[in-house]
Amino acid sequence: MTESIAAVPVERPAAAHWLLQLRRAFNANATSWVGLVVFLVIVALALLAPLIAPYDPLDQDIISRLEGPSAAHWFGTDSYGRDTLSRLLWGARLSLVIGSVSILSAMLIGGTIGIVSGYVGGKFDLVVMQAMDVLLSFPSLIMGLMVVAMLGPSMGNLIIAIALTAIAPFARIARAPTIAVKERDYIEACRALGYSDLRIMAVHILPNIMAEILVMGSLWLATAIRTEASLSFIGLGVRPPVATWGGMIREGFENILDSAWLSIFPSLAILLVVFSLNMLGDGLRDAIDPKLRGGE
Questions:
Q1: Which residue, 22, 52, 225, 290, has most beta carbons within 10 Å?
Q2: pTM (whole model) above 0.85
């Protein structure tokens, strides 16, 4: 009996097979490649900001204040004479760091809650999911606004606020497939072999639901960047003079009639990164959904 149980194969998604499915899904949906390339370009520009930014983002030149786009300043200058292009590149670094760290934190915490809740089930699952429903009842921007208003505007508090708004969705997205996976034969075989619950969740359930969590992560990264910009716009983001896209839009809004480029360029940057992440998320979703792959 033990030998027959031990012979039951443990189903884990092969990385090579998933990458092949991902490539096929991207080839079937060309916009996914566009989203991936655009996002990688934005990340590269952010990483190379210290090398390619034409000016220091904090250097002020009052004589050149509010100049329009020119050969010296491609995207013009702000009300302090700072180069808009340089601040845009450095702002990308901050937006991507805040968005990535907050979403990775939410994936870790929310995914763990969802897996444990779905695996344990019963009253524990009911109580946990009701708590997640309470968090979901608050719009992400309102929740972030409440947290930052209580803790104070800073980079760390901004990450905490955005992560808190995303924990409940990740818990939900992790719980549903966990409930389905835990009923499969190979999980029953693991229990019969005496594997601990922690090992079953970490080694045999998590790899089988990771794709869904990653898709959710790509979509919520766009939401996190948008939330960071919104909080910075209303003065609850990273404090000036640090360059952030939301802060740049806010500064430009004060001169919107005379110097519209101050708000237009950072707004276009946010639009571009959110658009690319949404297209990338569509490709990832197509890769893991058999119905969207044509039933392969």
A1: 225
A2: no
